[in-house]
């Protein structure tokens, strides 16, 4: 089961907050710290989640950079 940076378990549909500015590969934009991501999806890998962001589409984020909201 995936866990956030604080060790809280994550489930599909949870909302998370980004804890660090993240550069997105292939795009010149950055996801800012404090960004709220709603309705995450689990992809079977315990250290990654999938998130849908406006203007970026679906991206994969390491769970060590998120905390449960």
Task: Describe this protein's structure.
The protein is mainly beta. It has one domain (13-66): Roll (SH3 type barrels), CATH 2.30.30.40. The chain contains no helices and 8 strands. It has a 3-stranded antiparallel beta sheet with strand order 4-1-8, with no helix packed on it. Strand 6 and strand 7 form a beta hairpin. The radius of gyration is 11 Å and the shape is globular. The mean pLDDT is 94. Residues 3-69 form the Protein YjdM C-terminal domain. InterPro entries: YjdM_C. This is Protein YjdM C-terminal domain-containing protein. It holds the Pfam family YjdM.
Helix-strand makeup class: mainly beta
The largest sheet has its strands arranged as 4-1-8
Quickly name the level 1 CATH class.
Mainly Beta
Q: CA-to-CA gap between the ends?
A: 17 Å
Sequence of secondary-structure elements: EEEEEEEE
* Low-confidence sequence ranges: none
Number of strands: 8
Average per-residue pLDDT, rounded, comes to 94
CATH topology: SH3 type barrels
Which percent range fits the helix content?
A: under 10%
CATH architecture: Roll
Largest sheet: 3 strands, antiparallel
CATH homologous superfamily descriptor: SH3 Domains
In DSSP terms (H or I, runs of 4 or more residues), the helix count works out at: 0
| Shape label | globular
Give the tally of structural domains.
1
| Strand percent estimate | 35-45%
**Radius of gyration from the alpha-carbon trace, in angstroms:** 11 Å
